[in-house]
Write a structure and sequence with these properties.
- With about 325 residues, this protein is an alpha/beta fold.
- Strands 1, 2, 3, 4, 5 and 11 form a six-stranded mixed beta sheet that branches. The chain has a five-stranded mixed beta sheet with strand order 8-7-9-6-10.
- The longest helix has 22 residues.
- The radius of gyration is 19 Å and the shape is globular.
- The chain starts with a helix and ends with a helix.
- The N terminus is likely disordered.
């Protein structure tokens, strides 16, 4: 029942946000200073995935294009989507499932830049479905009837972990998902509040440091090259501010490329906005930050989301993607 109520609440927020987006004349392109620099607010999730924008801001990739980023943390993409549509943020970072759900509901969102992707290396992805040290759970199939922590209900963690269970011969409908922020999951495992958790870095390394184990690489199980998240804005904002959106796209693309080729600087910057201990920085498994979304992997994720009832209608990927 709780999952149903949350689902209805999220849908209501999408509808409300959509209505606001379509009727708001919005002059909120961002705050422009006397020197011409425009400050844009970006809703992000404080995890390793968004290291490129922190790094890009530090290296001046946005500044040289007249942009200053105001990065605002949120728990998940399902919370950031309404924030973008209501002009709380000019841009947002969201996992791919949240954007697929929004687009299938005709919520006017538009992807402007790629975000983060799986590593395409079996056994070495940046997200693992983890259990605590000494857990009797050794494989995804054994999650049947167990409590699994995810950052947002009915989202990409649910879909990917269910796929791991199906591939292991289990019944994915028997999983019980519990919502909590990523950085609280390692403690929840230790306290037996949950049996397993969807842990991207740095939560993944935190669990492993405590003796825990990854029993599945669930993003990889959906697709080895899964596009996990992307940066987006509202259709209205993109239409009213094409030059500013172009600058954000170019700066973000440069940031993604730089992050992909400078892992040491990624490890340094991630310590500035996460709670990860310095001793774990070298143990982080870094994701892949390609310049473009992988459409085939997004189509596969949409198929699974529809199979699991998260999508009622097929999303229009031509309308959603750049």
């Amino acid at each position: 029942m709780r999952r149903l109520l949350i689902g209805l609440t999220v849908s209501a927020v999408f509808v409300t946000a959509s209505a606001c987006g379509s009727s708001n004349s919005s002059d909120s392109a961002g705050d422009t200073a006397a020197d011409g620099t425009t400050t844009v607010k970006v809703g992000i999730i404080p995890i390793l995935d968004v290291a490129p924008v922190y790094l890009g801001q530090k290296k001046g990739f946005y500044e040289k294009r007249g942009l200053k980023l105001e990065l605002t943390p949120a728990q998940g993409g399902a919370a950031i989507v309404p924030g973008v549509l209501n002009n709380e943020f000019q841009f947002g970072f969201s996992n791919t499932t949240s954007l697929l759900v929004a687009q299938s509901k005709k919520v006017p969102v538009k992807v402007v830049a790629n975000g983060v992707a799986s590593t395409a290396e079996e056994g070495a992805d940046f997200m693992g479905t983890t259990v605590k040290k000494g857990s009797p759970i050794k494989s995804p199939k054994q999650l049947e009837g167990k409590k699994v922590a995810v950052n947002s209900l009915n989202n990409i963690c649910d879909t990917s972990i269910k796929e791991s269970v199906r591939k292991d011969g289990g019944d994915a409908s028997k999983l019980k998902f519990v919502e909590m922020p990523f950085d609280q999951m390692p403690a929840a495992l230790e306290n037996d509040d949950v049996d397993a958790a969807c842990t991207p870095e740095p939560a993944l390394s935190t669990v492993k440091e405590a003796g825990g184990t990854a029993i599945a690489a669930s993003f990889y199980d959906v697709d080895p090259n899964l596009t996990v998240a992307m940066y987006f804005t509202s259709q209205q904002y993109a239409k009213q501010n094409p030059e500013l959106v172009k600058k954000f796209q170019e700066a973000t693309a440069e940031s993604l490329e730089y992050a992909d080729s400078h892992p040491d600087e990624v490890r340094e910057i991630v310590a500035t906005y996460t709670k990860i201990p310095p001793t774990l920085l070298e143990k982080l498994t870094l994701p892949h930050w390609p310049a473009e979304p992988n459409r085939a992997s997004i189509e596969r994720l949409a198929e699974l989301a529809k199979q699991d009832g998260q999508l009622k209608e097929d999303p229009d990927l031509d309308a959603l993607l750049p």
